Amino acid sequence: MACASLLFTFGSVAIAIILTSQYALAYLRSPFKKLPGPALAQFSDLWRVWNHYSQRHIETQKQLHAKYDGVVRLGPTTVSVTDPNLIKTIYSTRGTFMKKRRPPRWPYHTNIFGTRSNEFHSQQIKPIRALYKQQFATELEPLMKDTLCMLCNRLEQDFIRGANAGQTCDMGQYKDKKNFMNGFLQAKREPPKEVTENDVIGWLIVSITKVAATLFGKYKIELEDPSREWELHKQWFMWLRDIKVKMSLY
Predict the structure, then answer these.
(1) Which among 141, 153, 161, 157 has a CA at the least distance from the CA of 180?
(2) What is the 3-state secondary structure of 151-182?
(3) Based on the domain organization, do 8 and 80 belong to the same domain?
(4) pLDDT per residue over 196-236, tens digit each?
(5) Co-location of 176 and 228 in the same domain
(6) 207 and 162 in one domain?
(7) Are residue 167 and residue 241 in the same domain, yes or no?
């Protein structure tokens, strides 16, 4: 009995020391410890987890910003920003604020939005930098106006005067409509098109081919015999052809 009590006491003390050390290190390593915010948020994310769990995080953040202004610390490495003047500071390419490291969904390919490399980001954004200027945005204003008018007219037709009047509108069904976005993305009007089976098969083949090309590009070095690589490509496209033939039978 005494031994069990001693082990329990020792374990409790050890856990307390570990937690205290962890919270102290989180506070000392935090780059945001000088920013205003809740006291518990300096040491751990438990305060933020509890606040989200209680479903009061939106109201809490509004109150914190009203009290502390535009930047509020919500955790050792988490801040909430409402000051638009800080956008250029946070999203600059100088590397002051690096994007958080996360396991990539597709490790063999990256893009301008998912990369953590400032060099890659600068290289990829150079050809499209002019698209983000105010002059280009002004040129798109008429297209945006027509697109929004088309959306509003369709919503009014379906959910105000139509058979679904008074029901909840699922905006996800409209934002993915190709006909709705053609006016803005392609700067032209197209008649409504019905998606056919051949369209789906073609999209599937193109998508799988892109994935295959990426995989072959990664493992190309690992193939010792060049003829083996061509054999893999041939088998791959024969398999795609068989899929198209089988799907066309349904």
Answers:
(1) 153
(2) HHHHHHHHHCCCCCCCCCCCCHHHHCCHHHHH
(3) yes
(4) 666 666 667 666 766 665 555 544 444 444 444 445 555 55
(5) no
(6) no
(7) no
Q: Which of 54, 55, 58, 50 is nearest to 75 (CA)?
A: 50
- 208 shares a domain with 143: no
List CB contacts of 47: < 8 A, sequence separation 6 or more: 38, 40, 41, 74, 75
Beta-bridge partner residues of 71: 81
Per residue in 39-80, pLDDT (tens digit) is 888 888 888 888 888 888 888 888 999 988 888 888 888 888
Exposure of 108 in the CB half-sphere (CA atoms within 13 A) = 11
Q: Give the range of the structural domain holding residue 242, as residue numbers without chain letter.
A: 197-248
Q: Is 92 left (phi over 0), alpha (psi -120 to 50) or beta?
A: beta
Residue 129 lies in a domain: no
- Angstrom distance (rounded) from CA 235 to CA 207: 17
Q: How many domains does the chain have?
A: 3
Same domain, 212 and 145: no
- pTM for the model: 0.45
Same domain, 74 and 147: no
CB 41 within 8 A of CB 76: yes
